[in-house]
Specification:
Layout (H helix, E strand, L loop, with lengths): L6 E6 L2 H12 L7 E5 L6 H12 L14 E5 L5 E6 L7 E2 L14 E5 L4 E3 L5 E8 L7 E6 L1
Parallel strand pairs: 2-6, 2-8, 4-6, 5-7
Antiparallel strand pairs: 1-9, 3-4, 8-9
Helix pairs in contact: 1-2
Length: 148
């Protein structure tokens, strides 16, 4: 992906560790970022978003995969918003404007998009790509690569 400058790799051995990595990552976000989450089914994309929610002060217990509604917004204690989109059920590749994401996020808000590769076009310049893959040494062992 053009424009990516650095990548950091984390190892996670549980859903709680994946969430903790996301909590720490949330502290690095200033607003306006769009986070593309990729990984197989069950890799931990939604667990990562739950950690983002906790790190941003949103109600993490409300975070679930928005697969059936495409996009959900969670208010954060700071007054910011965490937008969470899941494009898994899209039948074909679409652009961000086709799924109502074109105007998100606001300058202080964050947009996390699961299955972002299903978008053929998008307008965002501040994209962070997160790949979550099974590390192969146990059912819960994950490799989380964060590329900016």
């Amino acid at each position: 992906m053009p424009g990516l400058h650095t990548a950091v790799v984390h190892e996670s051995r549980s859903e709680a560790e994946t969430e903790a990595i996301a909590v720490a990552f949330a502290g690095e976000l200033s607003g306006g970022e769009v986070i593309f989450l990729e990984g197989d089914l069950g890799a931990g994309k939604t667990a990562f978003v739950r950690g983002l929610a906790r790190g941003l002060g949103a109600p993490e217990d409300a975070v679930a995969s928005p697969t059936f509604v495409i996009q959900t917004t969670y208010p954060c204690a700071s007054g910011r918003l965490l937008h969470h989109a899941d494009l898994y059920r899209l039948a074909s590749e679409l652009g961000a404007e086709d799924v109502g994401l074109f105007d998100l996020p606001g300058p202080r808000d964050i947009l996390a998009v699961e299955w972002a590769a299903r978008m053929r076009t998008y307008p965002w310049k501040r994209v962070v790509k997160i790949d979550i893959t099974h590390a192969g040494t146990g059912d819960d062992h994950r490799r989380i690569e964060i590329a900016r």
